[in-house]
Amino acid sequence: MTITTAITTVTTTATKTGPALDTVHLLPQTRQLRALHTIIRDRHADPERFVTTSGRIIRRLIETALDLLPYEPFDVQTPVGRTYHGLRPATGICGVSVLRAGESMEHELRVMSPGVRIGKILIQRDKVTKLPRLYYSALPADIDRRSVLLLDPMLATGGTALAAVEVLLGHGVAVDDIVFVTLLSAPEGIDAVHARHPNLRIVTSAIEERLNENAYMIPGIGDFGDRYFGTDVTR
């Protein structure tokens, strides 16, 4: 499947073993969302405003991701003595952030899911082989029985995302129980991830034009982690 910049709705991927599945969930490209992106993409954006505005977008992403998780019927009594036939999560939820940039997404998840467990994965590209290398992971012992939101604001080449998914699979998590939540996605990264895991669901707020020769997204946002945590050496 080739992802193009014309995507404005959910992308459908057909598999050989089953019916088509909705795998790419792009936030509605409203004028307000474009205004928020205008702020965080501005190279001269104030650091505090960059963090606040990013948080607003991240909250929308996590709300969308939570809606993809399984729910079960749950009735409650209202203050007027009537029964409301509601829903509650059918499984436990776990967030897993890809260090360091993924930590920027943890706060909004904790606000919406108080008490949620958070795992950590540190993956960096080897300077010699240029391949992603796992340096550290700390995950809940029962993660294989939970729905997992994999948090990383950037999906560029897809190498880090694939390595993180492999870590989760190694701990017994099923691909169908993972939702990858990312702020920006490159078409090349989406294609790379779905070439290996076509059923992996991705929630993103923007699909970029392409990667440049240095694997930076175009039009891009720069190094999200550096800008969010105030370690941008260019400032």
From TrEMBL:
Residue ranges of domain Phosphoribosyltransferase in the record: 28-231
GO function terms (MF aspect): uracil phosphoribosyltransferase activity
Keywords, sorted A to Z: Glycosyltransferase, Transferase
Gene encoding the protein: upp
Coiled coil regions in record: none
Pfam family, one: UPRTase
Origin: domain of life: Bacteria
InterPro entries linked: PRTase-like, PRTase_dom
Enzyme Commission no: 2.4.2.9
CDD domains attached to this UniProt entry: PRTases_typeI (cd06223)
Name of the protein this chain belongs to: Uracil phosphoribosyltransferase
